[in-house]
Protein 1
Amino acid sequence: FGPRTAAGVVRNISFLRQARSYRLLHHAMDEAESLRAALSRLPGVSAAMVAGETRRRCEVVGALVVVVVSDVAPAELFRRLNDLPGVHEFAGQDERRITLRFAGGGTAQVVVTTAVNAGAVLLQATGSEAHLKEVAAHAAARGCSLHGAALWRGSTFIATPDETTLYHELGLGMIPPELREGRGEVAAAARGGTPALVTRADLRGFLHCHTKDSDGTNTVEQLAAACRDAGYEYVGITDHSQAAAYAGGLKRDHLLRQLEQIDEINQRLDGIRVLKGIEADILQDGQVDYPEAVLAQLDFVIGSVHSRFSMDRAAMTARILRATDNPYLTIIGHPTGRLLLSREPFDVDLDAVIERAAATGVALEINADPHRLDLDWRRLEQARAAGVAISIGADAHSLAGLANVDFGVAMARKGGLGAGDILNTRDAEGFLAFARARRP
């Protein structure tokens, strides 16, 4: 092997090891909810709640954590876990928690609490460790402590039936689970600065979806009707461009026929507006696929890198920066090209990309495909501070892909974004005005 091949083998071995230990968020949410529902049906259980990384909406999740509220003695409740399907063995048991190992190799931790202490236990089971350290330091400054998964003021036990009560006892507003990463959220809450985070209901437009004209499975009209029924005011169709031959990318004439079809659908389909878009490849030299005369006929353009991921940092950065010079580019799609537990982000100077996006009025996408979740939520605060608009794009290739939006919203919330920070919370005219602002 040459050096680059050998390095690639080492990287892939690392990914395989990580993939055995972690789940993608959407898989973790499904598994955790199944376990929560099964636990809630056990005799003596009054409530069961998902906690841990899943509740914090981390992109990848290790062990699942579920908190069970019960007046039954933990030892007795643990014996009843034998009735759960798929449990291979128990491990790591202490007086109030047990780790389940499933036949497929996954693990889950079950934590038992009484109702009077449920808030403190759920807080600790949700984490993160850094957040809990911030909470503990704040509590100590107020003469309180979190000890034995309970809240104390000196030697006096304080009942915490829920997390809202616990935070209130510490002089804090409720901190959303997505923010609990130890990034100063406790100090912000103490100042009254916990932000109003974006919700799915805030989104007025559905962006980034593929039809059967390229590599999707549904027609334009089917996607439009599904988006209307889901409560969206507009949908932006973005099939692949001609350079993406592997994904059925649209040649110029095919694209122009699709635009005519969209005009016809808009004339007769009530309750939804279909916008003309494209996910155009950002080519190796930074050109945006299609001549500008073609791009000018579209309402908006998402530009994405889909090839030559191994370019060095300087070349990849120059490639993306040059794309922003195109006045028809509206959004940079999945800005680092990562595939979680599968492919590393390509090497790019994101500081430079964020700076240029702010200067040129190009938005950056949170790609909500749960395999991508790119842009990384850790970069969102920086982008917002620079004045960059953020779009949430589902990257849907079927009607089922409409649900991807929830994962994009979760990443926006982890990044502390509110409705005003998200491009597609604007109405159709507001979104189109953003796209047109760059055009000649």
Protein 2
Amino acid sequence: MLQRRWMKAVVAAVCVLLSPGAAHATQAVAVADPYVNSAHPSRNYGALSNLYVSIQGTALVRFDLSSLPSGTTASQIGKATLTLYVNRVNAFGAISVQPVLGAWMESSVTYATLPPLSSSIATFTPSTAEQFAALDITALVQSWVTTPAGN
């Protein structure tokens, strides 16, 4: 049986900046969100509105961090949360958040061209549909602020 969890492309990373005398939050929106499928290794799914995650499917997300104030440093990021909406659950299983270790383009990435993935930084197991999952990705966002090409 094919295991599949569908996540609506309502993906956002919220960063809380802490600086002397001021704290504020900003939202970094997803600017690219394709998924790739090992059963169809040469097919691109960049135009779909949902992120399909399963044993065969991997979703990729890139964020626009330009909403962070100019000059923001990693040490000023106090908290970053990735919020995903689980639209449907066809089979139970853990979903892992892993940084992508290479360049990719939404319109052309396929399973055959998928860059390597790093080790997991967060996991969650959706049990019911129509729920939000909030994951702490502070260290990852801090690394993106330090090295923007890593996003």
Protein 3
Amino acid sequence: MRRKIVYLLPVLIVIAGFAAMRFLSSFKTAPEKKKPEPVVKIVETRIVELEDVPAEIVAYGRLASSQPVILYSEVVGTLQRGDLNFRPGQSFKKGNLLLKIDTRQITLDINTAKSDLLTALASVLPEIKIDFPEEFPVWQDYFNSCRFDKKIPDLPAAANQKIKLYLSRFNVYKIYFTIRDLEILYEKHFFYAPFKGSIVSADLRVGSNARTGTRLGEIINLENLEAEMPVPAEDIRWIDRTKPVNLTSSEISGNWTGTIRRIGKTIDTRTQTVQIYIEVDQSEDENLYDGVFLKATIFGLNIPKAFVVPREALYEQQFVYLLEDDKLSLRPVQIARRQPDYVIVNGGLNDGDLLVVEMLQGVIPGMLARQKQQTSEDKN
């Protein structure tokens, strides 16, 4: 009996302790469960103000002279120095004598022809004096005005057919036009600069013998510089030729203004681009070089009632988030034009809307949100 009591006693103690614990726990109250606080997203916004937004086209290309000129000799003779040293890189002004070719032989030919003309006039003047005394002073004055050191003056018009017959019989007309032809040939011995520019190449040096068709060198016009730039074919419709073009270069410092002069009519099938030609407006103190690489910012046609949206604020290429009643709202928009850093929206937004202009992650429409407090610098 005593052995049974020894075995049952621990069991009874355990049962009594368990019962006491249940009894005491019935007096303990359960703690209240805390409700999770709603998550509020802090977002950066911008107030939508619809206005006319100009389309902006960016293009790249090299600057080149719109008027390169290659000099060829049309006469034979020894090359002589002009007003400056004919060397590559040499700048010149309009009207400077670049080169000349020995004129001694052509001068003698002209004077010989003038001598023949004077001889012919001396033979015809007595005939005119006898038959047409009233016309004699005109031809006498012309005879006196013919000089060997000046250009031949214009031949007076014949008063009647008989005077013309006299002039033809003594070869006055033939000799006169021969002199005119020689004077034109004489002018081809001189190479005057038709514009302000620079010498690109000099194929012959002073003292060399020039022949007909010999290339003497190449010059470029620095007054009319233009850049040829490819523009995507889809952007051509946005170009406004009346607006100036802003030009910059990473190679030299400066900012220039250009004007669109021509737009090509052919699309490059490889790149789907169209060539446009921009003339650079430059003053004399600005230093632009032929061949410099330029970036052109072309301000095109205005898009009415539009707003600029950053690329990072666009979702699935057609949606934006708005802040409405302290909640995020997803709205589809109509995009008029896409730029590298932003898009121009002309549908789906209203004046006064709060547009979220930052990239959001892990959000859904209807999520609570609050506008980020902007500093004065952010607002600017």
Protein 4
Amino acid sequence: MSYTSFASVYDELTQNVDYKKRAEYIASILADFDIRDGLLLDLACGTGSLSVEFSKMGFEVIGTDASPDMLMEAREKAMENGENILFLCQKMQETDLYGTVRAIVCSLDSINHLSNADEMRKTFQVLKNFIDDGGIMIFDVNTIYKHQEVLGNNTFIYDEKNVYCVWQNSLYPDGVTVGINLDFFVKNEDDSYNRFTESFKEIAFSDEEITDAVESAGFKVVKRYREFSCGQPKEDTQRAYYVIRRDYNG
């Protein structure tokens, strides 16, 4: 998935995402492990909204994403906010930094965009090379419950000022993969509309698959949370957070 056309309307369609609240939540978890500053990798950073929030908190932020168009939006956003952030165009499973970081953050179900459990495992194996011993990674995932009961075979409509979006989902027979088709109608200055489409899929991994991928790469799962909570995920949790640590000298 490239998000080539999506990048220009992404922020308008995600106005309901409270990035400041999300960044503060993640930062509070990092603080529990005595990480309040230093190098932080915002993996699959998109248009950089979280990157900017972390930079404002005093972290030295590196943002990576596979989409040049998303990164263009991110760079402009960082400049507008006066934040000095290094953005790199990389797939998360091909991460290649100049050294190690204290923390890695991967938010808003980016892990679900990996094509299978093997690719997830390889991604964690790559990331292990670029995080300090004892370093913390925090990532979230859409759960199997959300894929089956919320996203499923449903259609969602977004009617914003400059863009109209029809989001159509199709649940695969495996019960964990959702095919997503987005039809965008973007308003022009003369009130006409341009239409474009993005299609991709998301996979919901089980806790066992995620834990196996994490541990086989030399990390350890130290916490599991429900979104914006300190409580454990439940059966009807839609987004789960994982806190993992690189084993010392692992």
